[in-house]
Write a structure and sequence with these properties.
By secondary structure, this protein is α/β, with parallel strands linked by helices. The chain has helices spanning 32-43, 84-88, 103-110, 129-139, 183-194, 204-210, 213-223, 225-230, 242-261, 269-277, 284-295, 307-310, 313-327, 332-345, 356-359, 366-372; strands at residues 24-28, 47-51, 62-70, 74-80, 93-96, 119-122, 145-149, 154-160, 163-169, 173-178, 198-200. Strands 8-9-3-4-2-1-5-6-7-10-11 form an eleven-stranded mixed β-sheet, sandwiched between helices. It is globular, with a radius of gyration of 20 Å. GO terms for molecular function: opine dehydrogenase activity.
């Protein structure tokens, strides 16, 4: 059993050590995790450039002051660029920190500019997007190392184009590598970037199945839809009522049974919250109450195009359904949530995942998929 993460106020691990040397890190994305990672990396002594597929919201490309509040208040200088060619350039490592529903399009755009020996870290990976990048790079004649994080190292909220609030630095984060033989160097790289606390996962499928975003976010969105649709303020953990928590627990049981069908062991959603936030409670509804009392938030989404729907349904729950069909495992609760989300949003979310077809999962076997992930 792993030791629960200590509260941020009790930790001494501050920003990651640069003992591994000064790295040149290109960050794809300018959302909350991208900005938070940029701050953390700059404080660790690394060089950072950021690029967004939506354009440079910070203004003209160049160096800008990036302000951080929350866990480690500070201001750092970060570089912003307009193009992927410049971002990939001579970067030692690329960090993909953006919603999974944009991964395929961005990965396709990255391929002409990546080079042999470069490392790409996908934070956090879902729907086996890292396998998509790795296999397509190989077809293009490029030898990449693609790392998958089972969850984000940091939790954060973007407050403006140049300001981010960092709430948590997770004390234990799983990471896998493609090819699997590169896992030791990937662990050393992640430690050099962010500090201690990384542990090896068997492969990218374990990283994907360890990600609990979909099973925790989707019920919150579906069962608070009227609040979201009307743009009403609501506190997520306060609205994770015992009934909603029960739905999440049922989805979690299906996720863990699915992992078992693939010979993979993953922790429970309660263990994830304990590692991430250092809670004392053990039942999910009690954990939600404790977090609401401690943090008073975070606020729930107030737009129906929230990533809790557009990302977590097709790239989370629909992906789990696809794995279940491959393993011959019925997943009634997962199927019900996808149906409910599709009905209320008026969108067939089973047709929204653009990774399933190119990964050819409908023709794959459990053994064959595990072999591709070695």
């Amino acid at each position: 059993m792993t030791e629960p993460e200590r509260p941020a106020s009790e930790r001494t691990d501050s920003f990651g050590s640069a003992a591994g040397g000064r790295l040149r890190v290109g960050i794809v994305g300018t959302g909350a995790i991208a900005l938070a990672s940029a701050v953390w990396l700059r404080q660790a002594g690394h060089e950072v450039l950021l690029w967004s597929p939506r354009g440079t919201e910070a203004g003209l490309p160049g160096t800008h002051a990036l302000a951080c509040t929350g866990l480690h208040p500070c201001t750092v200088a970060a570089g912003f660029v307009h193009g992927l060619a410049e971002l990939c350039g001579d970067a030692d490592v690329l960090l993909l920190a953006m919603p999974v529903n944009g991964h395929r399009r961005v990965m396709d755009r990255m391929l002409p500019f990546v080079r042999d020996g470069q490392v790409v870290i996908v934070s956090s990976m879902a729907s086996l997007s890292s396998l998509y990048l790795y296999e397509n790079a190989k077809r293009a004649g490029r030898q990449l190392t693609v790392a998958s994080l089972g969850t984000t190292v940091l939790t954060a909220r973007r407050e403006s184009a140049l300001q981010v609030r960092v709430m948590t630095r997770r004390g234990r984060v799983g990471v896998s590598a493609l090819p699997g033989a590169d896992i030791a160097s990937v662990l050393a790289l992640c430690t050099a970037m962010f500090g201690e606390g990384f542990h090896a996962q068997d492969d990218a499928l374990q990283s994907a199945l360890a990600n609990v975003n979909a099973i925790s976010h989707a019920p919150l969105a579906v069962y608070n839809w009227t609040r979201i649709e009307r743009g009403e303020p609501w506190a997520q953990y306060h609205c994770m009522t015992p009934a909603v928590a029960r739905v999440i627990e049922t989805l979690d049981a299906e996720r863990r049974a699915l992992a078992g069908a693939y010979g993979i062991e993953v922790g429970s959603v309660e263990e994830h919250f304990a590692r991430s936030f250092g809670v004392a409670s053990t039942r999910l509804a009690d954990i939600a109450s404790e977090l609401h009392a401690k943090r008073g938030g975070p606020p729930g989404p107030i737009r129906v195009d929230t990533r809790y729907v557009t990302e977590d349904i097709p790239y989370g729950l629909v992906f789990l359904e696809a794995l279940g069909r491959m393993a011959g495992l019925p997943m009634p609760a997962t199927r019900t949530l996808v149906d409910a989300a599709s009905l209320i949003a008026g969108v067939d979310f089973r047709g929204e995942n653009d990774l399933l077809a190119p990964l050819a999962l409908e023709r794959e076997t459990v053994t064959g998929l595990r072999e591709r992930l070695r």
